[in-house]
DNA sequence: GAACCTGCACTTGAATCGTC
DNA sequence: GACGATTCAAGTGCAGGTTC
């Protein structure tokens, strides 16, 4: 696994990783990358946009002879990427990425890890380096909320220049030695552990895990019971750790029984922690205060009350199924967004990364699964997923996005697929392989890595009555939006969206393109029919088209 | 105006699945 | 069986609406 040293998972930029003197164009005196004289001011294809500058990060021919790193894919190199460096901001995202990638290379990684964890890490870098400084709405929000049409908008972000530096850290909470037990920010790194423990402890005290159990064991109080509690009558119910009780019908804040329950919970939780419970992993001591625990419980009560309500009044199976499908679609949008960002990061396409950082998963086009036709699926989840084929999804495109932007995104998808198929990053390898295999009359693609392939998304017309829900991002360059769609907007809405009056350059450096090289950028997504992949076992033949000498025997890799 | 409800989106970890 | 990628479901937070 990767070394996470220096990869801050908290907010703010990670501490810079000092590179070795002379390595990757760095000097011992400064962390600022030096640009070799022979590259300074040298006109390259696509120069003027840092997109073009990423050229040379891949492929052999355009790579500088003096490049100290023989593997351009594993360590995107400032030397090979003068446009990226020329942006100059030492705290910029680009620098963060270089540090990250260089450190990975120094660890002897032949190529970047492709695990989800890595991608999350990289996505965090993007969040910290680009997105977070502009997230001014609420500093307790860990992620940028969706750019909802009605929601507060982010300020304009110049995707054409370097990201702004991260904001200064918040001042310390203490004043004159006074220990402030104020509830910690939702960003507190130990908070999720506390939440886990609080959830566990609630299960322990309430003896309930499910909504149905809550419904059965915590029935609402009767009027006379409420009266008895308020009058402190001898027969009033008193909540104790042994007889823990919550009234989910009464107000959590105002109900006397619930106030009693909250107090008992907090006391008992602290006792349990003192007694050694929840110590693996330990809860951060600065969170072990009544206020904090109570606040965490209050938040969890939202979930519990929701669970109770759902148990009491179950949603219709139709509604439930609908929600599940929508939830899965959202989840797949997340995967899609993650893979696109990963692809651009991996290739050092800083400008594209910055553009993507203005988006969120909700802005991705969704996809639909095919419906179950025969009901023969025996696995419940597969049936619920309404899939006919495990890896075929129908793209539900969004109406606001320009064709250019869509093509750009689909190209990153194709690149991602290329990277998946060939970790060495040989451009266009999927297409080359497919062409070669087709000529050979073979039906199976060569795949270098284990695991599921990225899902195959196909463009098919939607049903006539299909309605598409979508979220529109703001503050993007003009040519990200479809002109017709923009024309239909009210003027005030266009103003509100803060559309940048510049056109964005969607091009990719020539030597980092893959499927784009073909006339149809989606060709290698579309030309593989599932039947071909899943053909008769006897007819299949595995084949790997090696590109490097040492890889020619690469079948075993 | 506070508390609560509801819908939506994101995060996280487990499940699933395909390949080696 | 191990590994790795995707999918899924549960948990959670936020925002807007509703109720008191």
Q: Notable features of this structure?
A:
elongated, 3-stranded mixed sheet, disordered N terminus, mainly alpha, DNA-binding, 557 residues
Give an overview of the whole structure.
By secondary structure, the chain is an all-alpha fold. Among the domains are: 191-283, no CATH class; 367-556, no CATH class. Helix content is 37%, strand content 2%. The protein has a three-stranded mixed β-sheet. The longest helix is centred in the middle third of the chain and has 30 residues, at 317-346. The two termini are 18 Å apart. It binds a DNA duplex (20 and 20 nucleotides) through helix 5, helix 9, helix 10 and helix 12.
Gross geometry = elongated
Q: Count all strands and give the number.
A: 3
Widest sheet: strand order? Answer: 1-2-3
Main sheet makeup:
3 strands, mixed
Distance between the termini: 18 Å
Order of helices and strands: HHHHHHHHHHHEHEHHEHHHH
| Uncertain parts | 1-121, 123-158, 161-180, 370-391, 423-430, 442-450, 513-557
Share of residues in helices: 25-40%
Query: Percent of residues in beta strands?
Result: under 5%
Our Rg estimate from Cα atoms comes to 28 Å
With helices defined by DSSP (H or I, 4 residues minimum), what is the helix count?
A: 18
Overall pLDDT level: 56
The helix-and-strand class reads: mainly alpha
